[in-house]
Amino acid sequence: MTGFLTLLQKELLRFWKVGAQTIAAPVLTAVLYLVVFAQVLADRVAAFEGVRYTAFLVPGLAMMSMLQNAFANSSSSLIQSKVTGNIVFVLLPPLSYREFFFAYVGAAIVRGLVVGAGVVAVAAPLVGVGIAHPLWSIAFALLGTAVLGAMGVVAGIWADKMDGLAAFQNFIIMPFTFLSGVFYSVRSLPDFWQSVSHLNPFFYMIDGFRYGFFGASDVDPFVSLAVVAVFFASLSAGTLALLRSGYKLRT
Fold first, then answer.
1. Between vectors from CA 168 to CA 162 and to CA 173, what angle results, nearest 5°?
2. pLDDT-derived band of residue 114, with 50, 70 and 90 as boundaries?
3. Which of 174, 244, 51, 148 is nearest to 156 (CA)?
4. What pTM was computed for the model?
5. Cβ-defined contacts of 162-165 (< 8 Å, 24+)
6. Which of 207, 240, 243, 233 is nearest to 222 (CA)?
């Protein structure tokens, strides 16, 4: 476990040393989203019954920030190491591919949770929102950031340059995140688009996390938890197989 702990510590220190960029900036961005969208859409978008739109936004924005930052942590670390050539210092030590995977994903989870906690700590008092079922929120926060951390590992391995990573983020992560019900309830959509939304795994992460705040959701939280857990297990198996093969790392 020494190798795993050392790599995990290295990844944690990597984002913690530049906390203004990796933690404070995402929190500020989420709060700005809250202010702008609350002002523009408060009377135009339907939320859950008895839930004000400003309150409805808080868990969605918190989860969106967690997902995006978890992905950014693992993917940017790997691509920077590949571009600068210092990936060799991670590959040379006797680290197993499992230790490699869990160290990068673990650091991504920590960064995502820190950012999410910051968003909730700042935004929740502004709109007067509480957490009805904290264990549900914690479960979806952990699973969601783990999923995006694993996706970041895949993107970091696949991309050869920053451009490739930017394409992965702009054409996969960003659309899936923004079309997952962050700013609206999917129940307000036509039937066809509701069905399309249910194909998006990010929707279940955000909907389940929001259930922890209000005790209300578009989908049964047990269904959402099962979908996210299966998605994470499948993604982890594929990522571990990729690491074991040495694709674009050792070969």
1. 130
2. very high
3. 148
4. 0.94
5. 162/79, 162/83, 164/79, 165/75, 165/76, 165/79
6. 207
Q: In this model, does residue 44 exceed pLDDT 70?
A: no
**Cα distance between residue 150 and residue 153, in whole Å:** 5
Task: Please state, in angstroms and rounded to a whole number, the distance separating the CA atoms of residues 216 and 244.
Answer: 41
Domain extent listing, the chain: 2-245
| Tokens found for residue 133 | 């079922």
Looking at residue 46, its pLDDT comes to 60
Mean pLDDT, rounded, for 192-221: 93
- Give the Cα separation of 205 and 231 in Å (integer): 11
Instruction: Give the separation between CA 245 and CA 238, rounded to whole angstroms.
Output: 11
Residue by residue, what is the 3-state secondary structure of the chain? CHHHHHHHHHHHHHHHCCHHHHHHHHHHHHHHHHHHHHHHHCCCCCCCCCCCHHHHHHHHHHHHHHHHHHHHHHHHHHHHHHHHCCCHHHHCCCCCHHHHHHHHHHHHHHHHHHHHHHHHHHHHHHHCCCCCCHHHHHHHHHHHHHHHHHHHHHHHHHCCCHHHHHHHHHHHHHHHHHCCCCCCCHHHCCHHHHHHHCCCHHHHHHHHHHHHHHCCCCCCHHHHHHHHHHHHHHHHHHHHHHHHHCCCCCC
